[in-house]
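Teaching note: in complex prediction, the entire set of molecules is handled at once rather than each chain in isolation. The prompt given to students was simply: 'Predict the structure of this complex.' The entities are:
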Amino acid sequence: MDKLPIKMKAVDLNAWFSGKQALSKINMDVYSNKVTAVIGPSGCGKSTFVRNLNRLHETIPGATVEGAVFLDEENIFKPRYDLVDLRRRVGMVFQKPTPFPTMSIYENAAAGIKLAGRVPRPVVDQAVETALKQAALWNEVKDCLDKPGIGLSGGQQQRLCIARTLAVRPEVILLDEPCSALDPISTGKIEELIHELKKEYAIVIVTHNMQQAARVADFTGFFLLGELVEFDVTGKIFTAPRDKRTEDYVTGRFG
Amino acid sequence: MGQGDIWFKGFIFAFAASIPLLLVSLVVVLFFWAWPAIIHFGWSFIFSSAWDPLADNYGALPFIYGTLVSSLIALLIAVPLGLGCAIFISEIYKSKTGEYIALMVELLAAIPSVVYGLWGIFVLAPFSAAYIQPVLGGMFGFLPLFQGPTSGPSLLTGGIILAIMILPTITALSREVLQAVPYSLRESAMALGATRWETFKVAVFGPARSGIIGAIILGLGRALGETMAVTMVIGNRPRVSASLFAPAYSLAAVIANEFAEAVTELNLAVLIELALILLVITIAVNGLARYLVWQTTLKK
Ligand SMILES: Nc1ncnc2c1ncn2[C@@H]1O[C@H](COP(=O)(O)OP(=O)(O)O)[C@@H](O)[C@H]1O
Ligand SMILES: [Mg+2]
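The expected output is the structure of the full assembly:
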């Protein structure tokens, strides 16, 4: 754990919503080519934590932050840090699938690329195909790329959102409860996908489903009331937690 | 299905069916009363500029022109202003002050047209003749639209008063449409690295587009049919002039002004035919708009 390459590092990270503290002194690492799970009961600050890794938290009126988050050893909170560049390097997929409703499947997958400026059509085509393949959606949609993205099933929509994120070629992918609105089969597909994706990306997945964390994550952090109670190799969190509160949570004694 | 449900369904159905019926009966009645004018002038009525009650010779062109052009001027002013205001309040300046500005703009809708008309006569028309028209003439004087003597009551002044009157409609509705776009879409765009403007373009304008077109159409509908304020500032002269600074007339205004004084049967029929034309124009505009909305929502 000490020798693994660190992709992102939160140092004494505090966050507030209109003065109400949601994160206190979080210190946590995200490793390259590993899946890091963030678990904990609802309202404990999991979303707030990942939303600080791409600085989406502070876009909410009244939301504030203190502390540091390093991406490749550069503090993303330093003045004049390029937010557009940060969000392209640290992609995010949300709990509810959010395809752009007026766009086709193709346009949705290409939305991020097109933001980067004028890109020749063949390049976009290629990037869209690659991203949809990576998101394990290509075979299902390759014949109907110009159909509306919202016409797909929930699981397909979520994979489309993953493809949209991958198409920008990020380095880190944040997944905030990506399966909580999906059926078990779609969930299985996305978990398989996460296994594939970690070969290329650093992945952070928020989940309130402990079995899911155990299945997909290399590392797991347990959050409670805005604090990071324990962070360790997933196996240790679930079989030999050091903290009593972690043990209570993973054995289902509360939350 | 329960007894109550059947009654309720029947009631709703009857109610829904009665609306097209009402429209059809409206057209039929107008046709019936306009019939003498329709057979007397034929299609040439639409293209004629004659207006001579003594000789019983009439044409609709100046009124059609006045209605369409004043409404177009109103749109040209009110759409950028109203949409800009809505975007500013819902996307850029999200605060109590923004809400307050919106409230003020939307309050404009509560002012009766006759009050707008009075304000138009005493404030807007003189201002238009003394400042707006000379400035436009100075900048765009090479176009016939902005040539000729200035005049307080004019097509331009009519267009401006309409713009002010439809501004709250366009602002309020587009603001609602913009605010109805889920915040999660904006966040998705931001998470892809979109700037504020790009977020608006990608995540907000797309979903809101058909609603915004709807807002503009409602504004246009109000402008086409507005009577009182327009007749008080448009000049009420039935002539098609190249210049926007010249007095003009509109369909709604001439009907309201002359209906009580129509002497001959033909004169009355002519006014009713003008009403029929106004109805056809508004239905056509609405149809076109609906088609546009349908196109933008379905094609994508
Ligand atoms: N937009 C918001 N405004 C105010 N408070 C919020 C907002 N979002 C979350 N919170 C509060 O911050 C705390 C952490 O929320 P969150 O990070 O969403 O938790 P989790 O994702 O673990 O369920 C909760 O107490 C929640 O009520
Ligand atoms: Mg959450």
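Point out the following to students. The pocket of adenosine-5'-diphosphate (ligand 1) is lined by residues A 17, 22, 40, 42-48, 60 (CB under 6 Å). Chain B touches chain A at residues 94, 182, 184-185, 187-195, 198, 202-203, 206-207, 209, 296-297, 300 (CB under 8 Å).
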